């Protein structure tokens, strides 16, 4: 952490340089912290650094779960799943998020000092201060959440511990040797930052005059035209009140989960925050009809499914090149498992078992339509041809080219732009992509899971039940209606299993499964299965990759380098 001071000073010099209008020499003494506190461009640069490191859907941590295998032999998640996870090697560590926390705390010092003039107009200046302080507090809470999700756990003392919580900027010679809070105290500290941010941020950017939040509209001498300057649509990708409420729901669900507090009050908090947002879009009627397809076309990136996303980039094809099958000039990196494929029900909504019409020798017939959208199966049309992962499949056949051809019999389709083409001569037709941080479907599933744990399948929170949510999601997916299988679900336990399965499918390959398995306390060592057509029959490959997690790996380690430096930092049990 002490090295952070060096990085901040370097960045402040750079920010000060790019904020200048000319290349004329600048007085060196103005490029320190005094300069930053008085120059709005430089000060805002400190805040914007806290937007770096936001966790997005392209981590592909599923390769460390029962949902996927990574083809690259030295892939970090593969190595972790095969038994290398320890306090010195943890690719899922998020301890570095504390660096962003210190950026935020430095910015809060700047803004609380009141020396930065964002506008010469008093009202506009006040609103800029409000909004950016709200952003900073929300981002401080979010980065602490990232650390909590990755490093909370049962300590060596036997207590359920959270993380240190830093609310001040610490100088290089300051005291970083602080103990972890209890898990619940950590949750409450993050909630406190989120709640304070909610009293400062606009619910959404670009609100019309009649929709302006009261903490802005009640300001003395309020003028809407000045409000627009501060909170216009131009700032849409920044954190807003709506996003903070969604993050509160996500945090509360983590806290409520079986591996942590197993708490009805936190389930209530998760469901209430989720319902409050979802009712602003019409409840389950507001579920985006195309929300189960990540990309349909370039235009669909602006989909109402995206609650929070990053900026839309230019035309690229690097993700597709990593994931496409070899016959369409890809490297086949992520291979969904047969475990994951079997999570998809039949089209009539019943689980895919032989008792419900599943034919192991015709395994992809009459299945949930989402399977075709998310996974390239044997015999699928893809990239202008047919992908054969079985006998006679050439480069696409299972294990044909080590490190490139599938190891499970499947290739990934979800998250890929369907119109990307990679040509044999090395040229490509790229498409635009965006990092997505939060989707409305996740929020619907948070409500469903929480409401069911509170009172069962038909318990209402904000007029919405778990059954309502799952019915809407499965109807959108193309499950035959009426959904007779859903009608058989009458207990909390049965609905819990269905919700978890729907979450596994809907949020697949977006970086959720790795954390869900842990917060639910599910087995980590499920072998990754494959499926192969051997010219005559399909055969199951029961252990394409053997998982080898320690029994205490539900809670991941604090980095060893940190516990060696700081005696107050208690390690999680077993590491």
UniProtKB/TrEMBL annotation:
Gene3D superfamilies: 1.25.40.390. One of its GO terms (cellular component) is cell outer membrane. It is found in: Cell outer membrane. It comes from the Bacteria. Residues 64-205 form the SusD-like N-terminal domain. The keyword Membrane applies. Residues 324-575 form the RagB/SusD domain. Keywords: Cell outer membrane, Membrane, Signal. Belongs to the SusD family. This is RagB/SusD family nutrient uptake outer membrane protein. It comes from Algibacter marinivivus.
